[in-house]
Amino acid sequence: xxxxxxxxxxxxxxxxxxxxxxxxxxxxxxxxxxxxxxxxxxxxxxxxxxxxxxxxxxxxxxxxxxxxxxxxxxxxxxxxxxxxxxxxxxxxxxxxxxxxxxxxxxxxxxxxxxxxxxxxxxxxxxxxxxxxxxxxxxxxxxxxxxxxxxxxxxxxxxxxxxxxxxxxxxxxxxxxxxxxxxxxxxxxxxxxxxxxxxxxxxxxxxxxxxxxxxxxxxxxxxxxxxxxxxxxxxxxxxxxxxxxxxxxxxxxxxxxxxxxxxxxxxxxxxxxxxxxxxxxxxxxxxxxxxxxxxxxxxxxxxxxxxxxxxxxxxxxxxxxxxxxxxxxxxxxxxxxxxxxxxxxxxxxxxxxxxxxxxxxxxxxxxxxxxxxxxxxxxxxxxxxxxxxxxxxxxxxxxxxxxxxxxxxxxxxxxxxx
Length: 417
Prior knowledge:
The chain has helices at about 65-75, 100-115, 135-150, 155-160, 215-225, 260-285, 300-315, 315-325, 330-335, 370-380, 405-415; strands spanning about 5, 20-25, 45-60, 80-90, 120-125, 170-175, 180-190, 200-205, 240-245, 290-300, 350-355, 355-365, 365, 385-390, 395-400. A hairpin with a 2-residue loop joins strand 12 and strand 13 (about 365). The chain is about 30% helix and about 25% strand. By secondary structure, the protein is of the alpha+beta class.
């Protein structure tokens, strides 16, 4: 329980009226494939029992995957309503001449199988960029997915969108709107090619709260700025990044159609889900051994706080130092110094912390004596906190990242194989 939210299980199936399924269809067969090989799911489907108000945000990369283009067009045609989402891993369906045709075909296949309008289907893909997506395995999988839809198969879907992820990522909360119990749950994937302003992440969030399409989009656009857009693993912004938020209203609360107390409660619950998924994504960075949480406090405004926090967590030099458990705090000051924000560097303080304690390394923009032994003990933990004080305001923000390791190079050196 936190701030009136109850943590619950169920991921995208936690809220009322959402079914999911997942299966392996063979989009990318491994070189040593044999008939008795056990495969991970590589495609999933989930649906709302009724048309849901749907909001979305997309990658800011100029190169956009075909599924994003089709999804955006479908939501415009449907007036922001969706019933189903189909998503595959292993192939991003990006930079292909037939990409849009195949992304649309995936929507049409689902629509025909479920008897719904094609424009009420959202499509997403993740995986290798620039390889032609085979549509035949997907054609065979859609009837299997539709038949397997169930209110408790969130795990099948969460594992189907994983690429280099080592763990599935789900989170859900229960909360009250005007005395009515509502729920928000989500699932995410992402491990590499992750950088602020969206990342190589697919994020699907569902709610049974009644909220207008306009307020749903407003809430998502606001919360993404302080969660997913404050996430970095390696500095690369991908092409297929997408956050989709659906709200079907089955909780039967009075619809939220303007700002006010109910909207703030919904937004806080959404932030709780998205912030926890963001943390999971950072912790599971490719080859990562440590989560890094950069907190910028006593800033004059949100923009300054987020800019500084992101600048620190994006520093490759700092990521390497954290991997090596070296309290090279000068790299933190360097990253703070090149942040595009206005503040007095001579007022900055920095502490490095973990479950093993905290050590002050900088005050008033200059180093202070500290125990290297204590710092090494702190950095031996798998969650490291860099706490920054700007001492020029009362606003705070966080950013999330991970260390940069030898395994990151190994994973990306032969990613296609």
